[in-house]
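help with these tokens:
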Amino acid sequence: MRGCHLFIATSLLAALALPPASAQVGVSVGISVPGVQIGINVPAYPELQPVPAYPVYYAPGLPANYFFYDGLYWVYANDGWYSSTWYNGPWYVVEPAVVPVYVLRVPVRYYRVPPPYFRGWAVAEPPRWGTHWGPAWEARHRGWDHWDRHAAPPPAPLPVYQRQYAGDRYPKPTEQLAIREQRYSYRPRDTRARERVAVEARHAERGRRGVDTRQPQRPQAATPHPADAERSARAQQQERQAQQQERDRQQHVRQQREAQQQREAQQHKQQQQSREHQEHERQQQAEAQQQRRDEQQARQAQQQREQQMRQRKQQEPQQQERAQQAHEQQQRAQRDARDRQAQPAGTARQQQEQTYAVART
């Protein structure tokens, strides 16, 4: 930390030699009481865009790793995190152990000025803070990069009232707390974000007390000047209009997101119905093919039975004829057998008659 302060002080000496900053976003390093202003100079309220599916905004037009989460601005510069409740600081150092996890989960692609050690890391994934900050940090933050994306909280409303505080109208740190409490009713949900707001409030209170003890208060007018009252009313009306525009924009974003979800659900339903219809058609085709096969097999079996019947009808006369022939042959054989049995008896009588005739002669 001492080395970091030495670096900041050295950079401050170099910055004192530079010409005044222009209306564009500049890059500077310097000390700002009671906080530290590092890396950026934002002379006007920046354009912030939501990081899709995260409760975090980022500034695509700034040459800095600049985010907004849960009512505070967060900047990653000089290998460290800084927070502020106002868009151009003063910035307060945030130790790695107390940076909100949703800020750490922002993918690499949303870092507009990534440090060299980000090279080679997946742009769709958060930075590898465990690798960078070491095993001790990773041991205290196990599972920080795993969460239910559907359960992420909604993003906090942007403090658009700060648009009217630009350039010379940008409030001093001792004035910022009162303006914020008056114009911004949102209270952080994240415990660590609430702690950062409390830290900045204590710094602002100490600074205010220090100014009060050294300088007499300016006398307040009994009644405001009409021109001041008109400007104040116009500023409040512009702020209300800006807040209404911001609410309308967020409502429009929600409606677009809901419409997109409905379209995706409708597409999913149509795809499911198409798959079911295709599956039904395949089943019908399979049943029709099976029915055709069954009918074809039945026809083939019927044809085989008919063919067998025709063959039997054709063979029946031949079988009858063969049976008749066999019957006739059997009858002839029986007659021949009877004839052969009758023939020996007749021959013996003839011999006896001949013998008797010889004896008489």
In short: Residues 232-300 form one domain. The radius of gyration is 53 Å. Strands lie at 30-31, 36-37, 49-50, 56-58, 65-69, 72-77, 80-84, 92-94. Residues 1-34, 212-225 have pLDDT under 50 and may be disordered.
